[in-house]
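Annotated sample (chain length 351).
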Amino acid sequence: MSSSSEKLTTLTSPSGNAHVTIANLGATIVDYSVNGHRVVLGFPNVEDYLQPTNAYAGATIGRVSNRIKDAKLSLPLAGKQSHHLDSNDAFASKGASCLHGGTDGFHTKVFEGPAIDKTEEGSTATFTLRSPHMEAGFPGDITVKAIYSLTESPSTSGSGTPVSLGVEYTAVLDANSPVDEAVVALTNHSYFTVSAPSTNTGTELRLATNSILEVNSDTLIPNGKIGQRPDLPSGAFAPITITDTEPIIDNCFVLTEDCSLDTRQSLLKPFAKLYHPSTGLHLEASTTEPAFQLTTGESLAVAPGLEKRGAFALEAQRFVNAVNNPEWVGQVKIGKGDVWGSKTTYKVWRD
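Output written by the structure step:
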């Protein structure tokens, strides 16, 4: 590995009670700790993030997160009727999807930077990636920024000062790109826990909705319909207690069908809340995005720092396979002069 890929940057909260560490490799969150508790799980060494058993822990996912049907951009784009991508989805029983940007996705790229900005409220680190035309099969030269912030806010309840990790993404199609349009849909793939030791068992999970993108059970690709998951509460933020084995969740939940290209213009809205009585820790995830993929960690490998059902993935994102759905493609298609943007926060405090 190069020295730049092994580079780590740590932001510390003004009180010193929290920190987040990000690697240039994949603009990956390798640690987010609050009051001595590790909230984001990760590996002990940067090179571990390149091992085949890593389930994208902490990484920036792109160019397009989640699954793309048949590993193909099937709608006309950038002057061609279709574009073929890497088929790398090992989780679907059938089909040949492109998962999380393919084998050569952004999780494997070394970002430039970061540029650091400090204020009284906290610190910000901005990482930059330039992805060339036809990299991993995707048309268009694009420039991506991954912006991480760590701030504190006055406590309104409980004994601890709330700490908030902000994750902001932007992407633009470069003015000198040989094509006039591209697709992009970024997310962060961190695994979160509020228990000690890390386990989902006993965690109280609350979700903003039980509305999901219905999928084909074999390919895990949406069928274009929005339904409800009947075994989860229909009321907003009703409690769900997680056991050793149940429920198993790996769905794309729908918050809204309205989605601008740069959702940062929208208000941040909570979409998932975690609490564990053994630690008294709360986590509230909020986003400007229209959907989120939540998993209970069945795919986590037995590797240093990661265990099956040891944490939750809370991936704020655009609709799955939007690149191939005429009704959804506006969420992900950018032209020259457009800005794709999103913002998500993960606020943590103790009782």
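Annotation: The mean pLDDT is 94.
Annotation: The radius of gyration is 19 Å.
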